[in-house]
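Interim report, section 4.2 (structural modelling).
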Amino acid sequence: MKITEKTITIGGNTNKPITVNRLGYGTMRLPGDMVWGEPKNKHEALEILRTARNKGINFLDTADFYGDDITNHLIAEALHPYYDDLLICTKVGAGRTPDKGWKVFDTPENIRTSIDRNLKTLKMEQLQLVHFRIMPNSETPFKESLQTMFDLQNEGKILHIGLSNVSPEELEIGLSMGNIASVENAFGYGQRTSFSFHGQESRGLQEVMPLCVANNITMIPFWSLQNSLPKNNDKIAVIAKKYNASPAQINIAWLLHYSDLILPIPGTSQLKHFEENINARDIQLTEEDMIFLG
Ligand SMILES: NC(=O)c1ccc[n+]([C@@H]2O[C@H](COP(=O)([O-])OP(=O)(O)OC[C@H]3O[C@@H](n4cnc5c(N)ncnc54)[C@H](OP(=O)(O)O)[C@@H]3O)[C@@H](O)[C@H]2O)c1
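Predicted structure of the assembly:
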């Protein structure tokens, strides 16, 4: 099997490409229970972010609705002024309710509010990559929300635009409106296609993969571990034993070998797990391993 690419270039077909190392970190596990409030152990949360810098992780996935606005504050506290090659990727389209719930927040006005909040908390003048997160039960036409994203890009507040929780039909529409640098959908070894979660559809990466490959769109999978580890897959266990690795590491290595367009962002609240997950970068699966895993 060929050595997997160590880096990935986002926005490669634009005049502002950004190259990052090919394992990122999703920050959603840093706040307290139900992605709400301060972390249980703030010291550990800040330590994870600082370890990211020291271990060559230069892609962080966040949102102003994680916390509420907790992860962005943690990122700024741990890492500002930012290291040169750091890409902080955020998302808009959702918000929070006081009872720790999630709400649709995707009117043009909502999107502008979220972008300004991200810029303020992250202490940035321009957001490098922002996903428009498509929410079930939205009442705003998709094109209207996405047009607002392109307007904000023209105004200089956003560099690259991505889509999250997107269907193939919506991605086609997005591509007809402008450049889409990345897609963030649910995907992992144990769950590759769309599924229902709390009665709402989570869109899988597999369905949009042909379009991403055809258009050189970076694929950022979420819930890669959450939807896979609890299944205790036998084949993952066999390969984990072969490499003296953990199931989480094999899940991440599988993603890295599956496609060079995939940029995994495993999440964790624990420094121990974070360091374990980073070490998955060093596992070289063979072609036979990948065929066996399927
Ligand atoms: N665009 C979207 O709609 C969307 C939706 C969801 C998430 N996201 C992004 O995707 C990122 C990843 O998703 P996620 O964090 O929800 O889930 P995930 O990466 O699939 O898995 C995280 C879960 O796995 C556990 N875990 C992590 N490393 C482990 C290890 N080495 N051994 C055992 N357990 C381990 C974590 O527990 P511990 O905390 O105990 O380690 C946590 O329960 C998020 O952080 C967020 O940035 C985006």
